[in-house]
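Researcher: Structure for this, please.
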Amino acid sequence: MTEIKKNVTLNNGDNVPCYVMNLDVSASSHVLIGNPFISSINMERFYEANSGALSKADGYRLYDGTQWKKYDYITNDGTYNAVNSFQSFIVTFTSVLSNSKLFFPLEGSYGLTGTKTNLTPNRVSLPGALSVKIKNNEGLEGDYAELSPAEEKQLADNVSKLISKENGQTPEVFLVGKNNTGYNLMQVYESQDSEIHLGVRYANTNNDLTLTFGQIDEFVAITGTAPTLIDKVTGVKQNLVISDTYTFRQSVVGTDSNFTDRNRFVIRFRENEGLLSKDSEMVVNYVNNTLTVDSSIGIEKVELYNLSGRKIFGSSLLDGVDTRYSQPVNLPVSVYIVKVTGVNNKITSCKFIVR
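Model: Predicted structure, token format:
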């Protein structure tokens, strides 16, 4: 939680008004925070105001569209780096404590504002990461969480999600760390992970909430696993490749748990074997370089597309009687879409992954 305090004594003796950010960093030394000012801030002064808490050697990180790039707080050429208004950035603490603080001085020799930068003030999804965001039926939504394949990670550790102590009217979603420890905004997925818990914080049990998952095809193509969302309260098991949204209402959770439920949802991973149907009337298999389609109705035509919409393969006109079609075809590793035209021009489609 960030609050303004009128009189904060900094390590140089300045007694000035500051934004004070109260943090629990007991789970990870890496934390994603944001610039609370409506102007850019001088990161050299930011470090000097917080030198007792932050690692100078680790610097801070900004996402440049491809990776979380490291920047130094203090440069050797007399210039300084800056962070844009409301931009997210990652800092590294020297100690993992439950009651850490960061100071954003408004005045004095450490005053942070008045700098300029051309850095892009947007958080961009990590490539190949399975993302999840949450929104209520009034349109309020918190930051999204990302599960990044190990080979795609930009940091050696997870990045903590900061759970505020406020009233919980904005829904928040996060990934629960291994052994049920820590809340993460960004977490590394490793091949031995069979499941990962998904946490939700929200105070209102009467409003609809919707989880929306992103970059599923990319995640599946990289990891070779198909993620399934499991709701332990309702018993629903939803293949995220088939459907990427899930609507529910928060279970009853009280102030003693800070309106947080970290036990209800699990993302479970199973090895993908090319059997990923998007329509209950059709099943597609790709095994030993052979594409097989089984349909509930007679098949008249089969077409194969890549994710950019380019047609890879098309069958000749079939008799519309057989409900199975099989064809040898050599496909490189990727995600594909099969389009089947059945009798009476009924069209169904299905995604599958070759790995």
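Researcher: Any notable elements?
Model: The chain has a mean pLDDT of 79. Helices lie at 43-49, 216-223.
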